[in-house]
Write a structure and sequence with these properties.
Blueprint: E1 5-16, E2 19-31, E3 36-41, H1 47-54, E4 62-67, E5 70-71, H2 77-86, E6 88-91, H3 103-112, H4 118-131, H5 147-159, E7 165-169, H6 177-192, E8 197-200, H7 204-209, E9 212-217, E10 220-226, H8 249-261, H9 265-302, E11 307-312, H10 317-325, H11 333-342, E12 346-355, E13 359-361, E14 364-365, E15 370-376, H12 378-381, E16 386-389, H13 394-398, E17 403-406, H14 417-420, E18 424-427, E19 430-438, E20 459-463, H15 464-470, E21 482-487, H16 493-507, E22 514-517, H17 519-529, H18 531-562, H19 564-572, H20 577-614, H21 622-648, H22 652-656
Parallel strand pairs: 3-8, 3-9, 6-7, 7-8, 15-20, 17-19
Antiparallel strand pairs: 1-2, 1-4, 4-5, 9-10, 11-21, 11-22, 12-15, 12-21, 13-14, 13-18, 16-19, 17-20, 18-19
Bound molecules: adenosine-5'-diphosphate (ADP).
Length: 659
């Protein structure tokens, strides 16, 4: 029958500079199933090295090793990890439990690396805990247990998969003699049940406990004796736990939260801060920028939707004479009529002419009022509504009626719009009857001056005919100061503007005596010029995200160094390199994603709070939110990758042997 363990000509050589150390120097060894053997020898004789090799924690330099007939020298990390996980159990001198996990979770841990669901793991662990006498300690943490109890947990963990062989490295070394005896009794019991046990010790008395004693000296087996009462019991209990794959994603995330995030709350929250600030500022900045743009555009629309303004240049003296001599009459009513006829997508046209007149109400002068003569669809085009009274009748213009519609800003305090109807304003000494009062428009025009918006609240509107015929004017002056045109569609403003210019250039004989203003277009180009600022702001936020990423990398590297022992333990009980790599990567990604989420929430909160006093509409570009959150995710992956690789590439024997 093939022995469970067969080693032939095994050597392990360490190179220390130019010097070679032969930790094992030609070992031949057979161990049968059900044996209880002790490996003894002085310190430095190679016991631990042999156990590490047999336990698949490391490989022999030369020689062959067959475990249950299978050649181990050819196995890769995945294969070796699987063997450690399912066919080998380890018990160490220092117990090697994970301090953050409960007794039950520690015992169940190896099962996580074979893809067994949590509830099943815990059930199985509870059964094993009872077997080693720990049933009433299952929810304690290792630091609440005695040394003997810790070692029982370690033994239970080693037994969870019903391994083919149990390796115990000085299992009583850290215990007092009484507890040590109990542990040895437990090993005896396991042997009686048919487990194969290999015990490493420097203590001959403990070795006597085993049925067979293999003595090492300078890396060679110098004696191999068997007790007369030695018996070999075939271990009948085959592992009933099926191989179901590897560490599941849910376990990885659970581990990431518990061991990465919650284990060091302050540290992780500080680390997250960079990501939080980065994500929050990207989103908040874009939201404010979009909000202010939208606010301005909305205000411009409030002052007149789809509006094109043609404004006379009010030439004077020489320039005026030259223009008239060249055949241009300046802006005229006829221009307006012609445009309307030529362009079918014009929905309304208004004409206006301003005159600087002294304005009085009774005997009180009215300061800063603007007198405008208007004709056409003035109210509609400028998006104005009446709070009281009526709009002019088209005939008022022809009849040169002395009627006025006044802005709400001209109503004296304490009077309502209705009170003022029928009253009179003196314009240049002539009385005009108030027939209408405009509604107040809450538009802050100071911000919009650049695009030519005016405040209608202090306007006195009179029929255009009344203004042109009842007052004296500068000779040769243009008939109109402004033609306002409303178009059917916002998208066609620029195109229509070009058409208007073509028509007017012909009518004005090419004289440049007017300006074309498209408020929405002006605003758009003004906002375009702010784009650079936006990009700058976004870059700063992006830098903050990178800084956050570096913070994550920093903290993860520190965590790797701090948790070498944990990495070693996990690897010893069956975690593959890629499991460790993923574990650390998931932790880094969780930090950055939670940071990203917090950043999104913070931005939402900040924008919601700040937009009210700033009177901004709340705008969230879902694309920016997605990009910012995605970037935080990417940051975790990117900056977590190097620490994760570091974690997985540790020398297993070295980190396990650390104190
Ligand atoms: P024991 O467990 O019997 O005390 P070890 O197996 O730990 O002995 O060590 C056997 C020999 O190999 C010792 O001389 C030790 O110094 C050497 N050795 C063990 N591990 C290493 C290593 N990683 N690098 C160099 N030498 C080592």
């Amino acid at each position: 029958m093939t022995p469970l363990i067969r080693v032939r000509g095994a050597r392990k050589t360490y190179t220390m500079g130019t010097h070679e150390v032969h930790a094992l120097d030609g070992v031949d060894l057979d161990v049968k199933r059900g044996e209880f053997a002790a490996i003894v020898g002085a310190s430095g004789s190679g016991k631990s090295t042999l156990m590490h090799m047999l336990g698949c924690l490391d490989r022999f330099s030369t020689g062959s090793y067959h475990l249950a007939g299978e050649d181990m020298s050819a196995a890769d990390d995945i294969k070796l990890s699987e063997i450690r996980n399912r066919r080998i159990g380890f018990v160490f001198q220092q117990f090697n439990l994970l301090p953050n996990l409960t007794v039950l979770e520690n015992i169940a841990l190896p099962l996580a690396y074979s893809g067994i669901p949590l509830s099943e793991r815990l059930t199985k662990a509870r059964a094993i805990a009872a077997k080693v006498g720990l049933e009433d300690r299952t929810h304690h943490k290792p630091n609440e247990l005695s040394g003997g109890q810790c070692q029982r947990v370690a033994i239970a963990r080693a037994l969870i998969h019903s391994p083919e062989v149990l390796f115990a490295d000085e299992p009583t070394g850290a215990l007092d003699s009484k507890t040590g005896k109990e542990i040895l009794a437990l090993l005896d019991e396991l042997h009686e049940q048919g487990h194969t046990i290999l015990l490493v010790t420097h203590d001959n008395k403990i070795a006597d406990h085993a049925r067979r004693k293999i003595t090492l000296s300078d890396g060679k087996i110098v004696a191999d004796t068997e007790r007369s009462d030695a018996k070999v019991l075939e271990h009948s209990e085959a592992s009933e736990i099926q191989n179901r794959g590897n560490l599941g994603f849910r376990d990885m995330v659970r581990m990431g939260f518990r061991e990465g995030l919650l284990a060091h709350k302050l540290r992780t929250s500080l680390t997250m801060l960079g990501v939080i600030i980065g994500v929050a500022s990207v989103i908040a900045m874009s939201s404010f920028s979009e909000g202010s743009k939208l606010k301005q555009a909305n205000q411009i629309r409030a002052l007149g939707a789809n509006l094109i303004r043609i404004v006379d240049r009010r030439l004077e003296d020489q320039a005026l004479h030259q223009a008239r001599a060249s055949g241009s009459m300046g802006l005229t009513r006829e221009d307006a009529t012609l445009l309307r006829e030529a362009m079918p997508d014009i929905t309304a046209v208004a004409k206006a002419r301003d005159l600087s007149l002294e304005v009085m109400r009774g005997t009180t002068p009215v300061a800063s009022a603007r007198v405008r003569g208007i004709a056409g669809d003035y109210l509609q085009v400028n998006n104005l509504a009446l709070a009281a009274g009526y709009d002019f009748h088209p005939l008022d213009d022809l009849r040169q009626q002395r009627f006025a519609i006044i802005g709400s800003g001209l109503i004296p305090e304490g009077e309502s719009p209705a009170d003022i109807l029928g009253g009179a304003f003196l314009l240049g000494g002539q009385p005009f009857e108030v027939v209408g009062v405009l509604e107040n428009k809450f538009v802050d025009t100071t911000e919009l001056e650049a695009v030519g918006a005016n405040d209608a609240n202090r306007d006195i509107l009179v029929p255009l005919g009344s203004l042109t015929s009842r007052f004296t004017h500068v000779p040769l002056r243009s008939e109109l100061d402004e033609i306002m045109i409303q178009l059917a569609e916002e998208d066609r403003l620029s195109e229509a503007g070009r058409a208007i210019r073509r028509i007017l250039d012909i009518r004005h004989q090419g004289v440049e005596d007017y300006d074309l203003i498209i408020p929405l277009d002006l605003l758009k180009s003004k906002q375009e010029s702010q784009r650079l600022l936006d990009i700058l702001a976004l870059s700063i936020s992006a830098i903050s995200l990178v800084v956050g990423g570096i913070g994550i990398m920093n903290i993860m590297l520190a965590a790797v160094t701090e948790r070498l022992k944990e990495i070693g333990i996990r690897r010893a009980i069956g975690a593959r390199r890629q499991d460790i790599r993923r574990q650390f990567l998931v932790e880094a990604t969780i930090i950055s994603m939670v940071g990203g989420l917090a950043g999104v929430l913070l931005a939402g909160l900040g924008v919601a709070v700040a937009s009210r006093p700033l009177d901004f509409p709340i705008v969230f570009d879902p694309l920016i939110v997605t990009i910012a959150f995605g970037a935080s995710f990417g940051t975790g992956l990117l900056f977590g990758a190097y620490p994760a690789i570091q974690a997985s590439n540790q020398n297993l024997v070295e980190i396990l042997s650390r104190e």
